[in-house]
Design goal:
With 355 residues, the protein is of the alpha+beta class. The protein has helices spanning 6-57, 64-112, 139-182, 184-212, 215-219, 222-237, 254-275, 315-326; strands at residues 241-247, 280-286, 290-297, 330-335, 341-348. It is built from 8 helices and 5 strands, in the order ααααααβαββαββ. A 5-stranded mixed β-sheet has the order 1-2-3-5-4, with helices on one face. The two termini are 43 Å apart.
Length: 355
Amino acid sequence: MAGKSLQDLLDLTRAEFERAQRELREIKSLVEQSKAEVDKMGQRNASITNQMRQINQNFDTVPRADIKATYEAVQKTQQQLFSMRGQLEKLQGDQVNLERYSSYLQTVLESLGDVAPGMELPGASSNMALSTPQGSDPVVVRIINAQEAERQRLSRTLHDGPAQSLTNFILQAEIVQRLFDSNPEQARAELINLKTTAGTTFQRVRDFIVELRPMMLDDLGLVPTVRRYVKSFEEKTGIPTALTITGDERRLASHCEVLAFRGIQELLINARDHAESSQIRVTLDVDDHSVRGIVEDNGKGFNVSAPLDPSQKHIGLSTLKEKTELLGGHLDIESTVGQGTRATFEFPIEDLPTA
């Protein structure tokens, strides 16, 4: 912020403080509304859960169609309640972050108010946390929001996948138990279905664990983990994905391996979900001083400025960009609508400390 007067800094901070206060009032209102909706949905869930208990008590006399309809209603209500609770938790987390940020800005204003207007701020630099673009949040706020969004996504994945499957297991097991005496053949058929469902769920849980944190990354390091992940990605998506690894295959400091793997993972997920490509090329290069990852696809391309804008919902790429920059690196994306995308990240590395 060299060349700027303290009054400029005061004006910027005051405007940011007022914006934070407005957003805080808005989010408090949303929190109250969401609490009321969660309470209503909680009552609905309790009512329909009680209905399901009554059906269980009279299981032998209730038609199968009624059991299925009630069970589906229970699942739908529970899913809606879970989603609404997740939204409420996200809003409450945002409220806490805004309150902290607002308190910090207020402290800065009070501190700067003791200095005469027009004085230059000693040691001021363009890297100050307050010198953020107008209309955008500070880096730390964006990273916190990105982390909360990721936690919400993981929670939803757990609920829609393993948690829902376990609920199905319970229902199927109860059906099998009651059919053993009255209809052994149907009981065997239900057991076969239960076994198939268990196998499918087990594979989904394994995929979820790999996405969350592949154990290979800790045990074997970056290069073997990327090889396995790219191969698995190709098998699951059916998109031909070529991998080229150059440089020195060695262990790096944990934070470097994590960021490099997450970079490859994020770029591949974007190519899968948005590019509509028929071919992907991945390059990983580890030299003496840096690690470089490149993901190229022949998909539909996009407007580069949109997903990298932190104010947009496409937080994956903007978060990756910020993390690489925090380590002294960069993320570059070249894309033209209809002509595919080439994304490159690079940052300096540290080798794994020797014992």
